[in-house]
Amino acid sequence: MMIPKGELYMRILVISDTHQNVDSLRRVLLAQPTAEVVIHLGDGEDDVALLKPSFPDKTFLQVRGNCDFGSNLPYNGTYTAEGVTIFYTHGHLFSVKNGLELAMSAAREQKAKVLLFGHTHHALTDYEDGMHIMNPGSAGLGSPSDVLSYGTLDITPQGIVTNIVKIQ
User: Is the full-model pTM beyond 0.90?
Assistant: First the structure.
């Protein structure tokens, strides 16, 4: 769905699994200048720490991933934007490689309308039983056949739009 120019909305940049690919994270942040909030879904705590000072106009939210060794970040978070509650997690503690039931249950416990997770390195957008689901894929690490990607989450007066963007 295209959002008409001038329409009020909030864009949230969703990124995961940068795995020390700071250049990729920088390119993504520069490619989405209208994103007010950046949610990093883990496996890149140090990457965000390096770039955050260069983007003082953005709010950064983060959770720890299974490769964020020694991290003090939480494993899950919630954020409410324009009245929409978002539950975000890396996903490894919810066994997202084996299905989304546990993560969806945790999101529902928080009364979330959006579930964001990473860990699998495979991009996904879905809508199930009133919940928008998105995994932005990996923005920093993959096999030669993998496509690096990130996500955008737009909250508009007409509804919620999730989108996966391939990194060029």
Answer: yes
